[in-house]
Amino acid sequence: MRLATSVERRRRIRRAVRHVEQRFRDEPDAQMKLAELADVACLSLFHFIRLYQAAVGETPQVTLRRLRLQVARERLRADPAVSVTEVAFDSGYESSQAFTRAYRRQFGIVPSVRDGSASLLESVDGTTVELPALTMQTMPIERSWAGAWSAYDELMARLEVAAVPLHNQNVYGVFSPERVFAHACARENDFVDGRIQLEQRQLEGGWHVCFSGQPDAVWRRLDRDAALKKTRAQGRPILMRYLNDPSFRVDIDQKIRLYVPLEAGVRPEELSLLL
User: Fold this and answer.
1) What are the structural domain ranges in the chain?
2) What is the CATH number that goes with domain 125-274?
3) Which of 63, 71, 245, 266 has its CA 20 to 30 A from that of 107?
């Protein structure tokens, strides 16, 4: 496969994923058709379904059903007065019984149980880890977010063209100390090396605080951690590892690990008590 073909295919599927996310944000009860998503991706319906499933790991129908149920769950949490039947019909189900079966399959509980599960911020995991020095194949990123997506798509396309197995695609973002997204990187291994034809970059190892979870929640956790602000190495970059492909996941489904470097001499066993 040619690099340009892989990049363009990623951009088209990403447009469809972002469209789904925006429609649900603007219209929580939106009833989208597959033809609408195929048009957004500028693909025939047949090719859209095939490429979407290969990229995302599920059919677009499954994505829409899963996100629609997530919207329904948030509505039931937020409004104790709303009935399950009303939410079921607004979510496109023909009966409350069908809605309840689908809801229980996805969440493990019936919709009449207004669960108080942890918020995204509370679900962020924190620990301390000692990273080795890392050798990366690196794509520079423009300062705009559009530039970040463009660089990330090219990096992932290069890995695809080089036939790098998914479990060897250890992809990171490097943020400057001022938190400017500076580079998209793939960690070198037996499959990722100079054949990718990118700039090689060395990243310093050492002790880091590691936060894992949904990206917005992880960054908010970093911002509110007063103890870490005093002990992090202010002049060193922050490293973010993607645990799934953000081009093909709506925001709430994205998962990352954020590695924040600590000052030399900080005792990680003391800091870990604050996490």
Assistant:
1) 3-107, 125-274
2) 3.20.80.10
3) 245
Identical fold at 3-107 and 125-274? no
Rounded CA separation 183/213 (Å): 21
Q: Considering only CA atoms, which of 239, 101, 235 is closest in space to residue 173?
A: 239
Q: Is the pTM of this model over 0.90?
A: no
Backbone angles phi, psi at 184, to 5 degrees: -105, 130
Per-residue pLDDT of the chain (275 residues; tens, 9 = 90+): 788 899 999 999 999 999 998 888 788 677 788 999 999 999 999 999 999 999 999 999 888 888 888 888 888 888 888 999 999 988 888 899 999 999 999 888 888 876 655 554 458 888 999 999 999 999 887 644 556 788 888 899 999 998 999 889 999 999 998 888 888 999 999 888 877 888 899 999 999 999 999 999 999 999 888 888 888 998 999 999 999 999 899 888 899 999 999 998 887 766 654 55
**To which CATH superfamily is domain 3-107 assigned?**
Homeodomain-like (1.10.10.60)
